[in-house]
Amino acid sequence: MADLLVFGSGGQVGSHLMRLAAEGALHVEGPARPDADLDRPETIAAAIAASKAPVVVNAAAWTDVPGAERDEAAAIRANAEAPAVMAQACARASKVLIHISTDFVFDGEKTTPYVESDPVAPLNAYGRGKAAGERAVLETYGRALVVRTSWVFSAQGRNFVTAIRAAGDRPRLDVVEDEIGLPTPADDLAGFLLEAALALRDVPAGDPRFGLLHAPGGGAPVSRAEFARMILTSVGSSAEVVPVTAASRNDPVRRPANAVLHDGRLQRLWGRSLPDWRLGLARTLAELEEWGQ
After folding, report:
1. What residues are labeled active site?
2. Cα–Cα distance between 186 and 149 in angstroms, integer?
3. Number of domains into which the chain is organized
4. Phi and psi, residue 259, nearest 5°
5. Under the GO molecular function aspect, what terms does this record hold (predicted)?
6. CA 5 – CA 195 distance, rounded (Å)
7. Quick check: helix, strand or coil at residue 45?
8. Could you give the 3-state DSSP secondary structure of residue 5?
């Protein structure tokens, strides 16, 4: 019998979750396309119905933010309709659902860190889809945990860390200075998700650990420009980071200026924060160096 069913098992968080579960001698199912296609929610429902796993983790999403602006309908199917189907299927099968969401559900205008009770006000199509998805999950099922996180990075795939590191041979990099957040190492987030899955698998609805939870990387917030400097310094690059404003980039996608999530509920209910993200950055850069990337 499977212990976990993981959607998005090939992504940044999902792949780490699969690895950590295997190291813990857990049986994990990680269906991929075409057997589990976010663009065809009926395949998601069928995968949940066929699985014996008591916990479903949704680490899958449409994460192409500019692409969501071009095809919002497809992004909505992946980020809102598919999670709604997951919640319905989990309710029918009495399975726990853990769903990952994002700081992009906020408009970034708050001057202090965001808490779970703050109203959502997404600025773009990606954020609108994710906000609709978490609302659908929470309104559909009482044994669901929605985990908001921010600025996820790992040695795998394209993310801010791998992109900046790859650009380190340029003489100059223009990086936004007026966007701040808490970077989140994918392996640290996966470690918490596994902990939550094991703790909640037999817990009934009504437990306070269900609902919304913020789980960003631990440590101090950082701007995009400061984050880039840390990456480049760590890899010995002499590239100059030139701070620019988000408005000056003429980016068609508006992004939250303040992406800092407060993890007080994580501390109260789970007794911890995620580790300092700077430790995860060092680990990720060492991993990339080892891989020769």
Report:
1. 126
2. 10
3. 1
4. -110, 20
5. dTDP-4-dehydrorhamnose reductase activity
6. 15
7. helix
8. strand
